[in-house]
Input
Amino acid sequence: MAGIEITYVLLGGLAIALLIAAVTDLKSRTIGNKLNAAIALGAPLWWWASGLTLWPGVAWQIGFAALVFAICTAIFALRQMGGGDVKLLTVLALWIPPLPFLKLIVIMAIVGGALTIVFGAAHILRRSKDRIAIPYGLAIAIAGLWVLGTEQLGQVPAVSGML
Output
């Protein structure tokens, strides 16, 4: 198990990656594969730094991410979610346990609904004929940042004498 400083550095790196995902999705409606890969590759460091055991901890987190991927892939097949969004949610599931992840999903839905209203109104005001594109990576990033800021992820147990 690593020190608490490493967990903060890793969470800070994840926060920066979420900000990059938000900006790139807002600008180009894409979330890069390299960014998703970097987030995924950071997960084993996060597991080690937060003291997650191989069994059942890491196995559970990987299984949970596989479930998220399966659900998101089905939504993608219905053309209701972009591929970058599927990958971003999947790699976040490698970092965030199920209950805080559920919080992420609820916040993402609320923010995504607000984005849909704003972008839909702008689309109508411009009298655009093309298909509306909502940068849902922005909603995912905001929800992820919210969870990172409000949940105690990877809390390192107190060392005797330090409270």
The chain has six helices and no strands. Residues 98-125 form the longest helix (28 residues). The CA atoms of residues 62 and 94 lie 6 Å apart. Residues 156-163 have pLDDT under 50 and may be disordered.
